[in-house]
Specification:
seven-stranded parallel beta sheet; alpha/beta; Rossmann fold; 7 helices
Length: about 250
């Protein structure tokens, strides 16, 4: 029960890493507000959590909507009276080179992967200030640390999120609000499934461990940052990549 009594908002919780985090957080005692645009799968994840004895609610959310962020935070306070943890997990990717992509594709990726996180922090931080502490985990990527061909908007957004996390950590440390970023390597999720098979030789060349990551490999790292076990960590980067960035 590493999160016993804590209240957490997790975005992008309908599939992949987000679903794994929602299930693990609930198992560890958190009250989970799970959000996603995929209402059907999100409802199924929350049904599973409740069936396993956890506490969670599913709320449809477009993280790029300021109005919907206000609704999510207000609903969380209405249900549970406080907010302790925000996991900015929602993300999208466009697998195109810079010359081939359209600007609306660029803007869409930046809106979800960066601006959605900014909005989450903007509306969650005031509630954490009322509580007197908080933990924000921004899910970046190894693409926010090293270059990756064919995904320029994604790496740009994740790199900006990495820097933003450090600035927010410094800005709100006085309020006992910790902000850290997590940098997954190649994890098999619905978002990566379409390119996984074709790109596997490339992934295996860069990943030093002889296997790829799974959603729970990231979920346990995020759990650590959400818990009081990491109470002296802020502005840090937790890289979970099978050794990709070791070289």
């Amino acid at each position: 029960m590493r999160l016993n009594g804590k209240v957490a908002i997790i975005t992008g919780a309908a599939n992949g890493m987000g679903a794994a985090k929602a299930k693990l957080f609930a198992k560890e005692g958190a009250k989970v507000v799970a959000t996603d645009v995929d209402e059907e799968n999100l409802s199924s994840i929350v049904t599973d959590i409740v069936a396993d004895g956890g506490e969670a609610v599913a709320i449809k959310q477009d993280v790029t909507s300021e109005k919907e962020w206000k609704t999510i935070v207000n609903k969380t306070i209405e249900l549970y009276g406080k907010l302790d943890i925000l996991v900015n997990n929602a993300g999208v990717a466009v697998n195109k080179t810079m010359a081939d992509m359209e600007m609306d594709e660029w803007n869409s990726v930046m809106d979800v992967n960066l601006n959605g996180c900014i909005l989450g922090m903007k509306y969650c931080i005031p509630e954490m200030q009322k509580t007197g502490s908080g933990s924000i985990i921004n899910v970046s990527s190894i693409g926010g640390i090293v270059g990756m061909a064919g995904s320029s908007p994604y790496t740009a957004a994740k790199g900006a999120l990495r820097a933003l996390s450090k600035s927010a950590a410094v800005e709100y440390a006085k309020d006992k609000i910790r902000v850290n970023s997590v940098h997954p390597g190649i994890i098999e999720t619905p978002m990566t499934a379409s390119t996984m098979e074709a790109a596997m030789p490339y992934y295996k060349t860069h990943t030093q461990l002889p296997y790829m990551g799974e959603p729970n490999d990231i979920a346990y790292g995020v759990l650590f940052l959400a818990s009081d076990e990491s109470k002296f960590m802020t502005g840090a980067e937790l890289v979970i990549d099978g050794g990709w960035t070791a070289l």
